[in-house]
Amino acid sequence: MTSAPTPTPTQLWIAGARPRTLPAAIAPVLAGTGAAAFADAFVWWKALLALGVSLALQIGVNYANDYSDGIRGTDDDRVGPLRLVGSGLVPAARVKMAAIGFLGLGALLGLALAATTTWWLLLIGAAAIGAAWTYTGGPSPYGYRALGEVSVFVFFGIVAVVGTAYVQIGQITGPALAAGVGVGALACAILVANNLRDIPSDTEAGKRTLAVLLGDHRTRLLFTVLIAIAVLALVWASGFTTWALLGLLMTPWAVRARQTVASGAQGPALIPVLRDTGLAELAYAVGLTAGLLIGA
Fold first, then answer.
1. Which of 138, 198, 273, 290 gives the lowest tally of CB atoms within 10 Å of its CB?
2. DSSP letters along 187-225, please?
């Protein structure tokens, strides 16, 4: 029986960036840009800068989590995708530098946005970077105290969507807020599915995620509630234009993910849920953005 080939350095770093999580960085920028277009205020280069910030922070937080969980030993008995530090394939110091590099890139791009919009955005950017690092890093990571979902909803939902719209429009609008709630709920659902899968290993490692505190059954119910909140946010957005209901384009992936979670799937069987929920979030943003463009 032959052993699996050793991943190349490039493959390792791509895996460490966790590309399946990147829809959670693209979706809020799409939705926020749709809200800007609805207000007849689309600025293409600001949208691209916002996308750069979002992607850089998402990759940065993925490397930061890999580093922090790895040095704590949380990933020693991992069910999910490969982790660089936990697997011992990449030195922790190099992963830490990659995290700092991507977070720094996000800061530079955010500085450009603030300089061309308003300087108080720097405070929000600093809070986002601090949240990215202290999710699993620092002496008292909030991701170990059941606050990860709150942070994801705020920063990858409300802040990312409304912020993308704000730098183009110059004000906060109803469609942007509705989109922020919906996208944030689906981003939370990705994290809930991830933490549901990891309940056994997180419990053993002393990592008190919301899923660990709620337990298996209530965590599965929470996943369904978050999907429902995303749908209700579309209903809210449809008050501005009924075309916003094109966000229901997410339905095939959301239904499949919800069915898998509700079936009682455990461990590796939950990994496809992360993919499907990420695709649902992206389809939601694409449909909602298209609806806002048509309804403008």
1. 138
2. HHHHHHHHHHHTHHHHHHHT-B-HHHHH-HHHHHHHHHH
Number of domains in the chain: 1
Q: What is the CATH number of the domain that holds 287?
A: 1.10.600
What lies within 8 Å, CB to CB, of 168 at 6+ separation is 32, 33, 36, 41, 42, 43, 46, 47
Reference 24, options 291, 294, 279, 292; nearest CA is 279
Classify residue 15: in a domain, yes or no. Answer: no
For 159, the domain range is: 21-295
Q: Confirm whether 197 is domain-assigned.
A: yes
Reported as a single tens digit per residue, the pLDDT across 232-283 is 999 999 999 999 999 999 999 999 999 999 999 998 899 999 999 999 999 9
Rounded to the nearest angstrom, the gap between the alpha carbon of residue 103 and the centroid of all alpha carbons in its chain is 15
pLDDT in tens, 150-160: 999 999 999 99
Residue 4 resides in a domain: no
Q: Is the pLDDT of residue 46 over 80?
A: yes
> What ranges in the chain are assigned the alpha helix state H?
9-17, 23-38, 44-72, 84-87, 92-115, 121-134, 148-153, 160-169, 174-197, 199-205, 210-214, 216-237, 251-262, 271-295
